[in-house]
Every structure is written in C-alpha cells, then in structure tokens.
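From the shared-data thread, chain only:
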Amino acid sequence: MPTTKDYYTTLNLARNASPDDVRKAYKRLARKYHPDLNPGDKSAEEHFKKVQEAYEVLSDSKKRAMYDQYGFYSETGFPGSGQWAGPGMGFSGFDFGDFSDPGMGSGRSGDFTGNFRDIFSQFFGQGARQREARAAERGSDLEYALNIDFWQAIRGTQIRLNVTRQERCENCRGTGSAGGGESVCPSCNGTGSVQQTAGVMRFSLPCSRCQGRGRLFSTCPVCHGDGRLGKTEQVEVRIPPGVQDGSRLRIAGKGNAGAQGGQPGDLYITTHVLPHSFFHRDGDNIEIRVPVTVTEACLGTKIEVPTIDGRALLKIPPGTQPGQKFRMRERGVLNTRKNLRGDQIVEVIIQPPKVRDERTKELLRELASIHTDDPRAEIWSQVQ
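Structure, as tokens:
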C-alpha cells in the first residue's frame, strides 16, 4: 500500500507557512532529533530523517508547489510504484505498474510512466509559465542609493536622477501584440486549454500554441512581445528637510512597468548623508564642541556659538567644568513628521592660556599660591 507523507504535519506547520517559518521549524526539530544528541535512539533517528525529507521539499518553491498541488514529490521526477501520495492528492493509491495505456502500443507500465512524466513536466514547466504570462503582473520595485551632503539633509533639496527602468511599450500598449490579424487558435478552439490523457487520468493543460489566451496574434516588432522597453528617465526627487542617513523614500509608480499591462512598481531612494566637519548629528539633535578660556569658565560669560541656523548666544555660568554640556532648546533638526525640532548640545572644552612671557608666568604662579587645593586629593582617597 502507498504511504501518505504529510510534510506539514512532520514540521508542525500550517499549509500557508512562510519560507521563514519552514526554516525555523526545521532548525528546531533537527536539533531536537539529531542523532548526535540522541545516541542509540532509533525513534529519534527516524524522526530526524523525516524532518530532513520534509524540509528538502518544503524549502524548495518548485518542489513545494508540486507537493501542494498533488501531494507528492520525487527526485527522479515522478514515481513509478505509487509510493508517493499525500494530502491534496486526488488519485492517491495508484500503482503505475498496474496500468497500461492501450494507445501506447507496448502496454508496458514503463511507457505509461514516461508519458505521465512528460505531461507533468509540461504542466509544471512551460504550462505554468504560460498561465503566468497571460495574466497582468505588477512591475518590480527599483532601489537607488543617493549620497547627499549634510546641508541637503538638514534643509531638504530637489535632485534629478537618471533612472533606467522598464517602461510600457506604447506601440502595443504593454500587451506584446502588434494588433490586428487576431484569430481563434485552432489548437484549442479558443478555449485556451487542451486535454491530454495519461493512462486512466485526464489533464487540462494551457494551450502551448496560443499560450493559454485562446487567440493568436502577431508579436509587437518594437518590444518583441515583452510589452516593455528599457529606457533611461530623468526623475525629479524631493528630499524633505531632516532626512537621516539610511532614510528610505518611496516614489510611487517609478519602478519597472508591469507585464501584460500590469501596474508599475515603485522607486525607493535610500539616502546616505555625508558627515560634516564640525556639526555632528544624533537623531534630531546637533552636537558641537566649543573651546572657552580658563577665565571664561571660572568667571562666567556669554559666547557666540555656531548653529545650523547661524550664530547664537550661549551663557557660560561661573565655575564651568571641562566637558560640561549645555542644551540649546530647539536649535537642532526639524522633524517634519513630528513637526518638532531637536536641540543643540554644546560640550565645553577649557583651553589653557599659552604662556609666552614672564608676566604670564608670574600671574599663574600668583594664582597657584592663592589656590593651594590639590585637584588629585580625591583620587588618592578613593584608591586607598
């Protein structure tokens, strides 16, 4: 008796499981039943073999399509002993060795098997492609990497790109047909399908002569039947203010044209923002480092600092320490989605004076004699 193999049950999956679900299920079960982890366990070894077999079929799109349609798959094409059957198979339990086709001459089961294989090869190969060919399909998306400088990202800009894409052939309006002279296909009488028989089974296959359309037409001389032509188009791209490095912008309808008059895909622009020599961006915030003198840090003052909008005043309070940071509210990048601006963070770098003369040395020695605190005293108290 033929054996029924339900690969989805073997991997604990639903029939609509995604390829990623298949991979995850296989990895989980392969670890669970691996012979190295279950030494001497024959049951685990058998489970492991079943898991491998199920994964081999369900991880391959063509094998899975055949299995979903007919409930079996064989590495040699199609079995001759009826050992492969499964869920969704409308003729499970046949043994090909028990049948012969009177129209094959010899009546041998091998002739039937060969004919069976030929028909299925046509069904899953050329026939499947023909069914796809006559249906309108959405065009593929295009990806484009765009380098912009710091200021273009901050303020936004308009950029023209030369994009090579497949456009609809205007000569045939994307159909691939030259138009005129169409006639009913004599092979299928306009139905688009033909009947073929293998032994006791009958199959309805797309007509190879008209590609399942039911009508014959002449091929467009411009696109040679594809319905699309490769062209380079200048596309105007608006970069909104505040885009970040790695932002992805979508331009609808500027991808490749669809097959058989289908809708075009989209164009996706990924921005790569070049760094600035002074301003550093962290999200919507701008970070800068500004030097101040010893006296400015000690006594306090107001200084001018650069911002992305120009100069602005920053108050330095008395006793400011090296590395201290100050926040300038709403001096950062405008986030157009939130309609909010980030801040500017200013880190203070205290710059000691350059000692060029004796008078400066004198003043520093006098300052040292007044302030005798050891700045490293706290360090020693911590390490003892």
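Residues 109-133 form the longest helix (25 residues).
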